[in-house]
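FW: tagging you since you asked about this chain on Friday. Here's the raw sequence from the shared folder, copied in full. Didn't touch anything.
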Amino acid sequence: MRRPWSAHISWLFGELPYPERVGAARRCDLELVETAWPAAADRELLPALLAEHGVRLALLNCFAGDIDAGERGFLNDPDRRDEALRAFEQVAKLARSTGAPVINMLVGRQLPHVAVVRQREAAGQALAEMAAEAARVGLQVVVEPLNTAENPGYLAPTPEAALELIGPSEAIGVLFDLHHIAMMGCDPELEIDRLGERIGHVQISDFPGRGQPGTGSLPIDRILERLQGAGYSGPLGLEYVPVGRTEDSLEFRSAL
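HL: got it, structure written out here
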């Protein structure tokens, strides 16, 4: 079975400069890629690189603040509402120019000076507004849960917390990332049952270690079957830390 693998080029092919990673993915027989918010120079190149190599962009992350300094989004900050909307306008524009159908949003870590209920309200309102605009132009918004061991105070650390934040809107999905789900002690198969059609994108790695499938103990084959049974047929993002060379780490595909 040929699965729709998508190389996350902010994680894979890290031995190469960013502009060379799209071509590297294609040489490894990957027709889909996804990425964190690229640097300005890379954003300018991305549409042409995708076209040159015949690769499609499966998912694009919105700007989420100073990641190196610990930020994980800022939708929860009422004082940064305008900044968040401008960031969304930018990512939606790039998504349209590259053909990316899905935009990934990080909601933010708890702020010490704002009541948590107000932060959740701010994030929920921003997401609803962004999702409505995304749907108008044929895009989908997803929210990514991030585990609190590596991202203390993150407002949506589990799929359940993400669902509570985004409410019943069908315009917003949940990004199903195996690493974060396992790090929170959740059972991925049970979470698939819980989320069902709310799964808007999937990212794969093994656990523990966050390496490629086969380097940890997760039943990846069974999880993929469960996803298919739940109706998910979209891209399977490869967001892992390669054990060995990236191209060698992709050999797991022959077994799945």
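FW: The chain is about 40% helix and 15% strand.
HL: agreed, and The mean pLDDT is 97.
FW: great, closing this out.
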